[in-house]
Design goal:
It is built from 4 helices and 10 strands, in the order E-H-E-E-E-H-E-E-E-H-E-E-H-E. It is of the alpha+beta class.
């Protein structure tokens, strides 16, 4: 079983309810075990597109799917929840974004998949929830906790737990 980190994000609709359903889909469609789930965080959008704040979270799962099959499944789940990658605005609004951040210590550099995620350590909206559940997880030779110290977390707010 591979230990996998997946980042979740969205800012359209009831994102937190979408996360719950998406996580169930991820575990069911990949035959994965959910190891950890971060809190949800309200985060400012990235880029120059005027839009609502995002909700972001991170999960850790264990799965036997290979990285390419896992990515394909994550894209299918995004599509199921209304995402159309071909039609969307870069860094624009979306109901669900699933990013494969790390798959064990696997390193892949292909056009369709780069592992670990090439921009994970530039994004506080990924590192804050990752540091909550796995601060000592080494990804690309660095821990989330170490990398987070070099980024601003301004505007990132932990949301209260859902009842």
């Amino acid at each position: 079983m591979a230990s996998v980190i997946i980042a979740l994000g969205g800012n359209v609709g009831d994102v937190r309810a979408t996360f719950q359903k998406a996580i169930s889909n991820i575990c069911g469609m990949t035959q994965a075990a959910l190891i950890a789930r971060s809190s949800d965080y309200s985060t400012p959008p990235v880029g120059d597109v005027p839009q609502d704040r995002f909700v972001n979270a991170v999960i850790e799962i264990e799965t036997d799917l290979d990285p390419h099959a896992l990515l394909f499944t994550l894209h299918r789940i995004e599509k199921k929840f209304g995402r159309d990658r071909a039609q969307e605005i870069h860094w624009g609004p979306r109901g669900l974004d699933l990013d494969l951040i790390a798959y064990d210590d696997v390193v892949i550099a292909k056009p369709e998949l780069t592992l670990p995620h090439p921009r994970a350590f530039e994004r506080a909206f990924v590192l804050v929830p990752l540091a909550e559940i796995a601060p000592d997880r080494v990804i690309g030779g660095k821990t989330a906790g170490e990398q987070l110290k070099s980024l601003s977390t301004e505007g990132i707010e932990r949301l209260p737990d859902l009842a």
